[in-house]
Please model this.
Amino acid sequence: MHLEEHFLIGWHISQFSGLDRRERIAITLCGIIPDIDALPRLAGQEWYQYMHHTFGHAFVFGLLLMGLAYYFGKTSKWKFALFCGLSFLGHLGADLIGTRWALYVFWPFSSYGLYSAYGWWLGAWQNRAILLGLLALAVPSMIYFRHSPLELLNEELDKMASALIIKDRRPGGKCACDNDALGLCTVCG
Model:
């Protein structure tokens, strides 16, 4: 799949963690970081074909991510590590169905490529449909969790985007404490 689908899958998974912003961002990034093995493309198409879906998509790399998450976690170290692992597995699952390339999940110990008989080409309409579905699911997620995908960039942008979605619909748009807030009142919460 494409980077934007991986980002949204990781972001959706992070919302269910109940962890703080820093840890949610790390969980989201664990859904993107396996594509680090696409960097050999800078050296040419041959290197890209040879290296993509190898070391970044291997279970060893996923365990390394989980170990780092446990080490750098704040309060719920195991929970943080498990959600990072879940985001990593979300990436692998999306690539398994969203591409027809092999995943070398046992790399460097084995060169066995894992394929899905039900996978489709990277540019197929199904990948765009999944992207649209993930974007549509972001709206109820923003309403429920009060965070937007923009939390990765900036906390204020996140608050502004969330406020647009969960805007106070009462006449006058005032908060219960009479603050002129758009649903995310800094005075009463």
